[in-house]
Amino acid sequence: MTALKINGEVQQVDAPDDMPLLWVLRDVLGMTGSKFGCGIAQCGACTVHLDGQAIRSCVTPLAMAAEGEITTIEKIGDTPVGQRVQAAWLDLEVVQCGYCQSGQIMSAVALLAANPNPSDADIDAGMAGNICRCGTYPRIRAAIKKAATL
Amino acid sequence: MSPRLEAAPPVGRHALSRRAIFKGSALLGGGLVLGALMPRVTKTWAQAAGTPPPIEPPSAFLRIDEDGLVTMIIPSTEMGQGIYTAEAALLAEELDVGLERVSLVAAPPDEKLYANALIGMQMTGGSTSIRAWFLPLRRTGAAARQMLIEAAAGSWGVPPGECITSNGSVSHAASGRMAGYGELAAAAMALPVPSAITLKATDQFRLIGKSLKRLDTPDKVRGKTVYGIDVRLPGMKIGTVASCPVFGGKLKSVDEAAALAVPGVSHVLKLDDAVAVVGDHMWAAIQGMQAAAPVWDGGAFKDMSMEVLVGSMAKAAQSDGLVAHDQNDAPGAYGKAATKLEATYQLPFLSHAPMEPINCTVQVKDGVCDVWVGTQVPTRARMLAAKGAGLAEDKVTIHNYLIGGGFGRRLEAEYVGQTAAFARQVDFPIKLVWSREQDIQHDTYRPYYYDQLRAGLDGQGRIVSWQHKVTGASVYNSYMGGWPADKVDPDAVEGAVETPYAFPAQRVDYVRWDPAPMPISWWRGVGPAHNVFVVESFMDELAHAAKQDPVAFRLPLLEKDPRAKAVLQLLADKSGWSSAAPAGVGRGLSLQLAFGSYVGLVIEASVGEGGLIRVHKATMAIDCGFVVNPDTVRAQMEGGLIFGLTAAMYGQITIEGGRVQQNNFNDYRMMRIDEAPVIDIHVVASEAEPGGIGETGTTAAFPALANAVFAATGKRLRKLPLSPVDLGAA
Amino acid sequence: MSIFTRGAVLALSLLCLAAQAASARADDDLVAKGDYLTKAADCVVCHTAPGGKPFAGGRAFSLPIGTIYSPNITPDKTAGIGDWTDEEFVRALHEGIAKDGSHLYPAFPYTSYTLMPREDVLAIRAYLATLEPVSTRPPENEVSFPFNQRWLMWGWNLVFNSDSRFAPDPAKSAEWNRGAYLVQGPGHCGECHTPRNIAQARKSSMELGGAEIQGWQAYNITSDVKTGIGGWTEEDLAAYLKNGFAEGHGAAAGSMAEVVSYSLRYLTDADLKAIAIYLKSVPPVDSGTPAIPRAAPPSIYAAAAPANDEATGQRVFAQACAGCHAWSGQGLQTPYAALIGDRALSDPTGANIAGVLLCGSHLQSPDGPMFMPSFAKGYSDTELAAVANFAASRFGAGRTELTPEGLAERRKDGCEG
Ligand code: FES
Ligand code: FES
């Protein structure tokens, strides 16, 4: 049993230490908001926060995740930055299929938390790891800037 | 019988609690069930309003419960294109309810009720949803409204003509009476469906034509949307699949014991050409698959390489093909032309790689089969599931889900059949999730094309002859089976025969060349994604050969098509075409008529050291007829453009040893946010029949970028993707 | 049958069983020892073709003299070594001579294995005999004249193969001697880490001083402080060998990741410590390129937009690398992805960065599989050279010598072997 601190609660998980956090969330705990896109840290669909930092849960071993506090898309709206980002996302209608958007939002929140007023270059540096196959990039950029002003 | 474990969750502002919405009115006592009022022809948009439509037998598009909450059964699949909101708006507009009182569910498989009239089957694809459903859904909404008015008028004893509706209720001003739709639904349901239906005039629209907030978005930004991959059922196990990496090959052996020794793995299931390892979670399945280390028998395709493939296409291209279009003896005119140009263009195999990897959940138990999947083709999915499960189609239930990106991939349902074939070996539900590697290596690919162009100019640089020979696979044949060898595949020449231009003499030939057993299929932009690239690149070559500006060169050819001309002029104006481009930047143009819409695109791009392309800016002008949701049109143009630019710069699937060489996003590369250009979109206000938009941006991207690269470097790349190697070479 | 006889038979068979059990235990011990030594000697890596059955051979080695394939060493009677005698097996490991008397190419590291005492060699043999026989034969070697004249190896052996067993140094501790044995004998570290002379033999003067091997740098692992592992603690060294990673030193990649995955991680902590002790005592060799420890770089945000290839490098890093390695270079989801302190980033040739970008990396660590995909197909030479140099300047000793042309050349070496 591993104790995981997720969204402010401690969950006991019966899973091997090397199991990536993504599968713990999705298949063991039933928290399906974090998505599987590539499994090799190339798309960002699985992004969650570990101690406030955006990480790719598909390559984060459970044992490593248990060392910090995890926040997922399901509860990011409870944080002030998360709330602003979601509001900006809705306001600008960023979303298309939505599959990448949990990860995009988690990355955007981490970016804004570290850098409340990001330039275009900062957004590139913070968001280029997240693929959106629907091509919502222009709106993501605009929504991050908007969230910075909310 | 197997319990209805879970149906796809509804979408909307008020979350209707989970229930078997299609199981009849027992759960929704007093609900109003309306038939589809489907005209067979929607082409004649202008005259259609007011034409009495033929009435289909009743079925479900709309339900109104006692509280006045409206459930809409949406015939098109939502995969990001915003169709749920648009189709809901069509219904709600005429029904006269606000979207905040609406929840949406996916239509079940039923060809009679939900067939897309433009395609002739129940399918979401080809940028046809709005075009096909614009009138039928409005008619359904209008008929329901009329029935509700009649029910109210009847019970109040007033003339129906004196009643008005407003946001979910009927009122009668003179008597001061008012009733909500919920109260009236039961009585309305008992009335006959009216034969004469009055639709709103476009200037009365409150919802249609407005940039409405999408109904599916709030859940999506909160991680609450349940896609097919998120399905969880009691007793369900999760697995992953490996198919023979060589197309057409078979499974030889698999180390079952090693797989079963992995903690959490419970089953190793086998088919002729694939293995599934199933267990408690995906991690067990992934590790189990590694341990299972399946051994394959490659079969006949195992020595296939790109070199052989393309070589044999080039050879096939030398043969006479089928004539797809022949007008005014183009070869003869070519012989007499003052200037002659020839070019060969090549387009690669492409994978769809939607963000949600292929997945499907199936339970086969007690003679019935339940399928939980996101599909663009519910009836096809049902047919293939039945085959896989070894059951009759009426024993199969499809629970359709929102899709994390389709792009054509989910027009195929072979994976549904495959999952059912695995699932019938056990009696619990299995969710099979493909790895990204499996997704890319076992896609149904956009075919390779090898096109030969030939054109002649007269002394003034005007086109006198245009010849285009397409060599490529028949997607019609692979999709429907048995496409006759002596018949031109319309998809292969779509965008080649019908261009925006009036050529004095034009000929299009088609040589069919199938790469079987490599599976091929539809890919966003379908035929035009290939032909518009070829036509618009060659137009650019001709303009330069004629020493004319590419806009000026095209304009005279558009005299007979004012919409095309207007779009090109708007584009030239908005893109600053006549001004000088910034230093080092090239401007490239494309113009197209595809999916019933006119699109012009100017790309500004530069080529840096090592042949690296940077796309700076895109200006688009579009006339897609009457617009249902302007913001969605923009979103689709943006997304489609980036999808096309991605493929133009990076997209290619290559074959070596009979197998796909790409694996994942590390080698099947995607454009990212830092490469996305600034996009400036100009939509023509139009009352013309709605055109498609989902694919037009993609189609436009290829030639505009290639032409911009030419403008920037003087290098004409006739092969996609636009390779830095070709550009870097001095 | 009377009760009596039945009892006697039972007693007898119990006796037999006990005897069998005793000898079985001895066999088990031998096999277990052999298993351990087979891992210490890393046999499986070379004797397995990609995607093939373990120990069935067929892995290709492209050498300057041509391509040779590792043999099948499963107990199959015809394809494998099932009909070899113990004597023949010992001769192969000590003298590099095959069953048929032909000379083996020294890609097979018998010049190291020769240090193993006969008992250790036979333990390996005993272990290999327990494997499932596999009947596949590796392809024929493709070696050009005169190197296909295997008898010529006789002269080479005369000069370069000592054919003598490891002799402990009584002046040193038992631990040191154990380490020396493992490094020089079964571990055959010098085969990669010692430069070779013109005759393809190891330069003894530069023992473990670092070498290039198929496009990769096997770094200096002598006690030299600046250019070797002299600055590492014993604990760090042992941890690196066990996990393929040590804090502040990055993770193993390429062939070294293979060695950790298939060999070193199975060794006991005592043996790993012994190896560390020995390596720290190896006479220093100055190989010229210092390993430079580096502090965390400044935040990426608000940095002045870099120019040209720096910008390209930064962009590629943002797209494909930052998700694991992090802008801090500390590794995001696992310290295995740390770049700070990684030897490859202070190597001016940039060879191993290029290798890892083109070939990816797979490491089986005690914390689970750690991997990096190959970026060869997705990114151009210009982009890969740019990102290598970006990473080296941000996290290592500065730009490397890598150029797009160099990347193109390195591509030709491929990733096998
Ligand atoms: S699924 Fe984790 S980055 Fe793609
Ligand atoms: S919204 Fe569909 S992948 Fe990003």
From TrEMBL, chain A:
CDD domains per record: fer2
Organism this protein belongs to: Arboricoccus pini
GO MF assignments: 2 iron, 2 sulfur cluster binding; metal ion binding; oxidoreductase activity
Organism superkingdom: Bacteria
Keywords noted in UniProt: 2Fe-2S, Iron, Iron-sulfur, Metal-binding, Oxidoreductase
Cited InterPro entries: 2Fe-2S-bd, 2Fe-2S-bd_dom_sf, 2Fe-2S_ferredoxin-like_sf, 2Fe-2S_ferredoxin-type, 2Fe2S_fd_BS, Beta-grasp_dom_sf, Diverse_Oxidoreductases
2Fe-2S ferredoxin-type domain location: 1-76
Pfam families, alphabetized: Fer2 (PF00111), Fer2_2 (PF01799)
Name of the protein in question: Isoquinoline 1-oxidoreductase, alpha subunit
From TrEMBL, chain B:
Domain Aldehyde oxidase/xanthine dehydrogenase a/b hammerhead, residue spans: 222-300
Designated name of the protein: Isoquinoline 1-oxidoreductase, beta subunit
Entry's Gene Ontology molecular function annotations: oxidoreductase activity
Highest taxon in the source lineage: Bacteria
Organism: Arboricoccus pini
PANTHER family (UniProt xref): ALDEHYDE DEHYDROGENASE (PTHR47495:SF2)
Pfam families given in the database record: MoCoBD_1, MoCoBD_2
From TrEMBL, chain C:
Gene3D superfamilies on file: Cytochrome c-like domain
Binding, heme c 1: C43, C46, H47
Main location group: membrane
Source taxon at top rank: Bacteria
Binding sites annotated in the UniProt record for heme c 2: C189, C192, H193
UniProtKB keywords: Cell membrane, Heme, Iron, Membrane, Metal-binding, Repeat, Signal
Subcellular location(s) of the protein: Cell membrane
One Gene Ontology MF term: oxidoreductase activity, acting on CH-OH group of donors
A matching Pfam family: Cytochrom_C
Binding site for heme c 3: C321, C324, H325
Xref: SUPFAM superfamilies: Cytochrome c
Span of domain Cytochrome c: 29-132, 174-283, 308-395
Family matches, as InterPro entries: Cyt_c-like_dom, Cyt_c-like_dom_sf, Cytochrome_c-type_DH, Membr-bd_ADH_cyt_c
Cofactor(s) required, per the database record: heme c
Cofactor: binding comment: Binds 3 heme c groups covalently per subunit.
Recorded coiled-coil stretches: none
Annotated Gene Ontology cellular component terms: plasma membrane
Signal peptide: 1-21
Protein name, as recorded: Cytochrome c, mono- and diheme variants
Organism: Arboricoccus pini
